[in-house]
Structure formats: C-alpha cells, structure tokens
Amino acid sequence: MEFIKPDTNINFLGVRRYAYLVSCTLIVIGIISLYFRGLNYGIDFAGGTLVQVRFHDNVQTQDVRNALKPVGFSNARIQSYGNPRDHGFLIRIPVSEGTPQQLSKVLRSSLYKAFGKDRVDIRRVEMVGSEVSKDLKEKGFLSLFYAGIGILIYVWWRFELRFSLGAILALVHDVLITIGVFSITYKEVNLPIVAALLTIIGYSLNDTIVVFDRVRENMKKQNARARKFTDLVNDSINQTLSRTLLTSFTTFLVVLFLFIFGGGVIHNFSFAMMVGIIVGTYSSIFVASPIVLYLSGEGKKKR
Known about the structure:
Blueprint: H1 16-36, E1 40-41, H2 43-46, E2 48-55, H3 61-68, E3 77-81, E4 88-93, H4 100-115, E5 120-128, H5 130-158, H6 161-185, E6 188-189, H7 191-219, H8 229-261, H9 267-286, H10 288-295
Parallel strand pairs: 1-6
Antiparallel strand pairs: 2-4, 2-5, 3-4
C-alpha cells in the first residue's frame, strides 16, 4: 500500500533553511518557557503525596480545598480527574511527615467531616520522599543521555560519523521540542513521560534509519558518483516517504484514541507520544538528512 506515487520528486532539501528556522523557533520558545515557567514535575520527581478521591455527587474544586484547609493542607494542588460525571479529583500535597496510612487517615477524616462519609471514596494514596524523588528524576533523565550515547555509537558503527551525528541531533531536536511543549502546556512530567521520551527516541530513530539505509543503497549504485549528494539524499527521502507517512499515520491514530479514550492514567503519556510522532516524522525528513548533507560539505553550497 502506497500513499505516495513511486515517481514522486518533492524537493525537501530545497526548503531545508526554512525547516531550520521552524525548528530553531520551536526550540527557542520551549527553552524560554523552561526558563520562566519550568516543568510541572509529578510526585515521582517532586516528592510529596498523591491522593485520588471520588465523590458520589457534584463537588467543586474550591469545596475540596476548603475541606483541607483546617488540617493544614491549604497548599495542596487539586484538579479534576477523568470523566467529569465521575466527580474524581487528584490531590497533590508537598512532601510532609508521616506515612501514607497516617496521611490517608487525616484526609479521610477531613473529607468525611466536610462532605459526609457516604459521599467520599478515597481510591489511592501514594507517597514519595524527597530523596527518592530526587534519585528518580536524576536516573530518569540520565537514561535519556545514555540512550543517546548508545545510539551515537550504533549509528556510527553501522553507517558513518556524519550519519550518526545527524541522527543524534535529530533526536535531541525531538526531545527538546517535546519537553518544551510540556513546559508550555504545563502538563505533568513523571516517570511515564520519561518512558514516552525514550519511546519517541526509538520511533524517530527508526524513521531516520530507514532513510539512511536508502541513502546508503543509492550510494552503491553505478551512477551514484556522477550525481550530486543533494539529489541522492532527496531521492532517498522521496522513495521512503510513503512508508514514513503510512507508519506515522497509523501509529498516531492509535495514540490519538488512547489520548481520547484511555483515561487520565495514560493521558499525558499519549499526549507526549502524539507530539513525538509528529516531531519525529518531521525531523527524519527535514532535520536528520539536511544535517548529513551539511556535514558532507555539499549542504554549505548554494544551489
């Protein structure tokens, strides 16, 4: 099955300077947001206590906040959770003393007193200490760094250094934009998001390797030396375009359904995957290959 005709000849590399401008703009906006706003770290990375509650009838966020003030949790972050008809809330409390059982008892007592015992259902209580959260955050982001080093070595071994650098810079591009989007939207960043970033790295690399493989195949053909490297790379992108778009579309469709119907537990994970698929597909066409072209020397020449 092919969405794109085999003889398609779109000049992707001809607009590489505009692609650089788009990428740099998105990255700069993300960095500015990170500097002024930062990331919304979840319990995994920030530490504290997460409480999931469900009310049997309609309750407003301010009502829950007022119920927690008498027991000293006025700084709690409260947000609705899941389907509005379920009247569910997530309560995030900064790192505090005591065990989850003790905290659960205090919260339960406070909510029962404010709303009535029959109207409240405490689903779960999770607590992460400050030292544990710091360790999780450090190891989580180090895993991205180690993955990048491993990919650099692998692509260098399989292809050439210029291809390896092109692949790594494209992956850095994808991760920076995805993290920037999370900062702009202020969605929660936790361990599942690190898992999503690692998945995005693998997905984007797969797309990029497919293009690089075709470039290598075309370089081995008899007439390859007589052609400009720019034209050879451009042909390779066009030849793999149908596969790239088909794979990206079907994957994005699945993740989109997870985002809509998967519930609050995987909402942010599926959001990260959607952003990553779009950015990863874009980078495999407009970032990785143009960087290889630039490193080859030909990309510096004006056509």
